Predict the structure.
Amino acid sequence: MTLSTKYNPAETESKWYDYWIKNGHFSSKVDPEKEPYSIVIPPPNVTGVLHMGHMLNNTIQDILIRKARMEGKNACWVPGTDHASIATEAKVVAMLSEKGIQKKDLTREEFLAHAWDWKEKYGGIILEQLKKLGASCDWDRTRFTMDTDLSQAVENVFIDLHSKGKIYRGIRMVNWDPKGKTALSDDEVIFKEVNSNLFYIHYKIEGSTEQLTIATTRPETIMADVAICVHPEDERFKNLIGKKALIPLINRPIPIIADEYVDREFGTGCLKITPAHDINDYEIGIRHQLEVIDILNDDGTLNEKAQILVGEDRFLARKKIGKLLNEAGQLAKVEAYTSNVGHSERTDAIIEPRLSLQWFLKMEEITQPALKAVMQDSIRLFPPKFKNMYRSWMENVRDWCISRQLWWGHRIPAYYLPNGKYVVAKSMDHAIQLAEEKFGEIYTPEDIKQDEDVLDTWFSSWLWPISVFDPNYFETGKANKDLSYYYPTNDLVTAPEILFFWVARMIIAGYEYTGKPPFRNVYLTGIVRDKLGRKMSKSLGNSPDPLELIKNFGADGVRVGMLLSSPAGNDLPFDEKLVEQGRNFSNKIWNAFRLTQGWEIQEGDNSENHTAIQWFENRFHQALAEIEDHFEKFRISDALMSTYKLVWDDFCSWYLEMIKPPYQQAIDQATYTSTITFFEDILKVLHPFMPFLSEELWQQIRERSNEEALIVSNWPKVSPYDEKLVVNAQHVFEVVSQVRNLRASKGLSPKEPLTLAIKTDNKTRFIGFEPLMKRLGNLESLEFKNELEDAASFVVKADECFVPLSTQVNAEEEKAAIQEEIKYVKGFLQTVEKKLGNERFVNNAPANVVEKEKKKLSDAEAKLKALEDSLTKLN
């Protein structure tokens, strides 16, 4: 068998993905004999295409599911997409507009027909793209949040919560998106720093020559003013309380009132009160029983109540009104001002606070079990730093505005009667029946009208971990086989920015409807950013095309590259060099396999290799224990790094170098068998991270049946290991590395044999390694003695090593080198001493971590003494 010199991902990825699908390796069925392990995908928007955040998130999920599958668990990863009301409706409206069709000219049914056509054409793109990444989802279980049965689940939950008095309809101040023309919940508002202006406007006092000056960033709303407010203890304005001021340009009189809410230090100490367009003004309006005047249309243009600039966009009106005020002599000045302004998370439009009749879910009581679950670690957040943020949100939660003024989505199952009342029902027929029972009157479908609004998208996705397994559960209250077996799911992998949008709400729904958590662990990924620290986005043009990255570097290379510097909860500063490093790692493994396949094998057992084999076996199990510990703590990036070092450093750089036969000589069968066994174990550990390359090499080693494919092979189990042997080997490798460094610094050929003398108090650490040291360091002889004359020296821990050179040693150069190393070791010592001198670290860190630091301290102290002794001899 001849392998190409470089790994070619394009030749292997589709081959093995098709193989896994064909042989049913991703599918999962209820099996009481096996332990279930389930994950539900955070459903990407049906409008979406693969971006870097998806890549990171789904790579981590795939790693977890592949490892669980290899551990013999019944692994089930449920994929699907979210209907994304606001984003999808905007896409469909834009598509129709390009064809010259306006939404307002269509009936609801006609528009929805276009929306479903769009969904069928584009809705599956992102899931197909995930397959290129290697995502091993059970594709037969793919769900869509507007599948008929999932839609019925949403309706049943709305009806149930309404019947419990937890959903109500009322006029409240909401966040209004003028571009999407819909209400938003607080969580869908993103605050951004915006440069604006502070306008200082003169308001004349009625029947007087006096005037008040008010500072505002929103002069276009003065026509909606209903009062001017001052602090009751502000001596500047006490004489004006109870009088009236005239709104500039329209001269409508409004009262001057007092309220302690006013900040006397901000602006001029006077506030214009506009209850229809500011949440704080609204609260003041309620306290003082002020009227509400809404001067904005749902698209952000001024309506007739404004009296002037009717029909103008709010921002254009702002510019024009500034000019009108200036011409009227009522604009004192304009100052540059920076403030945090709410933007729609979906359309990026600046939010308008607006009084609106909407549907709300009462949150105060329903959130309590979900708060308790996370605070008591029934559900664990990784990293735990997000617990405080979660608690803060849950303890200060406001009622959830769940209605949206859209057509695409789950229509609210409320039906309005001619008498102004409403009933909540599953269908028109059911609504007629309920209305007759409730009001004793006969109604026809023409008498009753269903609510035009749809539910917030999150009102369906908060049911996702339950509904994907058993959507009928919300009607029957009895779990089917799938829900009983797979729920609660095990792990959730998602982004911190939807901790409240989605994660908290799923936990709320889980406890409300099952009394159980929806998952045990939540792994919160970081945000993928560019080298300048900016979040990657299409609008900034700073995000690479993930499919191009896969094409250029291979899916395995991209997976490794993204994870190498992506610890949980910390942002990933993406650089294409990372995926290049991932590709190089793929080639390293490929070439290591090529090396083993190029050896001629002969019967026998080379005893010189026993120590190398024994060492690597122990080192493998030490690394495996580290990897398992990292997985247990959801340190996926660290698990990869431990795997990377095991493969690159320990296996490729040391083990293969120790056992490879001399040029054109054969390797003994015993060593070869051990080496291939190690390689197979390595491929198992690599598989969750690099599924394609690992499966390719696994199948190259020997012919396998479908049941023997790597994807379903047994994950290695940690065996007891000889830590002393591993530590001794590391010491030996450091000595060899220093010999190699010395060759390089002295310009010696790697082929020139050298003599090495070691002064040590612990000769046993070298037992068994002497032949290997000679081979790795190209040593003519290895001696244990106190010192050698005219030799270059170096120190490894407390061992002083001497290498005689054919040319005379430059004493000054040697002294300078030793002094530089002494300086470094002293700095290192200070760092360790500082850490061990920190009581919080010593008392709170795990015992093994503290012990490691103490060992570092003693090793460094021994090395410092040896270096100082060497320096003394040279002086």
User: Anything to note?
Assistant: DSSP finds 28 helices and 31 strands in the chain. The first helix runs from residue 9 to 22. The longest strand covers residues 189-205. Residues 676 and 701 are 8 Å apart (CA to CA).
